[in-house]
Amino acid sequence: MFALDALGGGKTITATAAGLLLHLLPTLAAVLLLILAWMREPVGAVAFPVLGLFYVCWAWGRFPWFVYLIVAGPLFLAGGLFLANSVVKSRAPSGEASGET
Fold it and tell me: What percent of the chain is modeled with pLDDT above 70?
């Protein structure tokens, strides 16, 4: 969905593949960050809000306020959830929050 505009336009297959790859690089970076954050919650607690803040600073003044909420809001939410999970795991007795029995 994020790279559909790279398709079409009468381009060669190589140009289409290059455009598709270029459009999907941010998605690949987000997925890799999510995998890393899944293993280490504090990384996600910091990295996702930083990405959201970066987007808001980069795009400030270009869109109405609700666009920032739609795009950056989930990043702040994900960071908050990673932070909450990290705090719960650190406060729980050993083995209880991690699902070990």
Answer: 85
Phi, psi of 82 (to 5 degrees): -65, -40
C-alpha to C-alpha distance for 30 and 26, rounded to whole angstroms: 6
Alpha-carbon gap, residue 48 to 37, rounded angstroms: 9
How do residues 11-32 score in pLDDT, each as one tens digit? 787 887 887 888 788 888 889 9
Q: Would you kindly state where each structural domain of the chain is located, as residue ranges? A: 40-101
Sign, Cα dihedral of 32, 36, 39, 43? negative
pTM: 0.72
Q: Calculate the CA 76 to chain-centre distance.
A: 9
CA distances from 60 to 6, 11, 68, 79, 88 (A): 26, 33, 8, 21, 34
